Amino acid sequence: MDKMGEQFKIIEYPLILLFIITGAVFLISTSDLVSIFLSIELQSYGLYLLSTLYRNSELATSGGLTYFLLGGLSSCFILLGTSLLYANSGTTNLDGIYVVTSISDLGFLFKLNVQFTGAVLGLTQIRIKRLFAYSTISHVGFILLALSINSIESIQAFIFYLMQYSITNLNAFIILVSIGFSLFYYVNDTKEYKQLAEKENSPIQLISQLKGYFYINPVLALSLTITIFSFVGIPPLIGFFAKQMVLSAALDSGYVFLALVAILTSVISAVYYLNIIKQVFFDKPEYKIKDETKDINLEANIIQNNVLIKKITFKVDSIRLSSPLTNTISILSLTILLFMFIPQE
């Protein structure tokens, strides 16, 4: 508890969160490029500090430094782009720069780069969280494609894609957390896991840690599979309808080549998604129950109205996930799975 609650001992912690939230609120309510840049910087500085909050963590320090360097480079590009737009249009107001949308070639190249950056880099990842991060870049390409078309259908596709991806991504991370909880009385003796830095803080870090998880908890493994198939865009899951809406809007507006590129990046991203499913279902599990917990008998009391009703004895492997986790995963997974019965925006 002391280790995981370390951030609450830092008195600046609430102030950092306030800066992040304030920057985010300003960002969604501004209509000027200068205000956008200042809002992003206000939010980013708080995130730089938050990512390096665990001072004794090598991963936090390296991750925060990388984030800071990339953020600084991104800020340079934002300032450069803003200056070029101001030099050509004489204004930094978004309404006044609406004419920029006619420069389709630049937007075309940018969307191509975003989708291929995310799809290709995800192929080399062995960490599950970084894989989801790179997959997000690929999905942002679809979102940018919908935004660039500027039609009623594309705006509907943009909103729907954003909503379904938020639901699916949330479910994926909740499932990963739940898998970590479900493995607390198992041990992994593989060399790869033993050399993993800070394995006690985040139980699931590597994709290889999911090997054979279907044989440990088949229901949770199936929920993860449904979520991943939705990322890929397999019909009839909700992710398929979202991609279909974006591609339909692109084809109706004449973006045939860009639609083909989007389909190609989806196929590339499906490779590393399906690799996760392959390890979950077809590889042998590398976990075994800890010796110190294998033969332990646990006791529990059932109390109603302050009266002891019954005493029960059970083994460690009888412990299940808490109701908030199981209910949340069930609702999100069923939403992803059963959307085909009400396929409406």
From TrEMBL:
It catalyses: a ubiquinone + NADH + 5 H(+)(in) = a ubiquinol + NAD(+) + 4 H(+)(out). It comes from the Eukaryota. One of its GO terms (molecular function) is NADH dehydrogenase (ubiquinone) activity. The keyword Transmembrane helix applies. Its EC number is 7.1.1.2. Pfam families: Proton_antipo_M (PF00361). Signal peptide: none annotated. The chain crosses the membrane at residues 12-30, 66-86, 106-124, 131-152, 158-187, 219-242, 254-274, 325-342. Keywords: Membrane, Transmembrane, Transmembrane helix, Ubiquinone. Residues 31-100, 116-269 form the NADH:quinone oxidoreductase/Mrp antiporter transmembrane domain. GO terms for cellular component: membrane. It is found in: Membrane. It is a multi-pass membrane protein. Belongs to the complex I subunit 2 family. This is NADH-ubiquinone oxidoreductase chain 2. It comes from Lachnellula occidentalis.
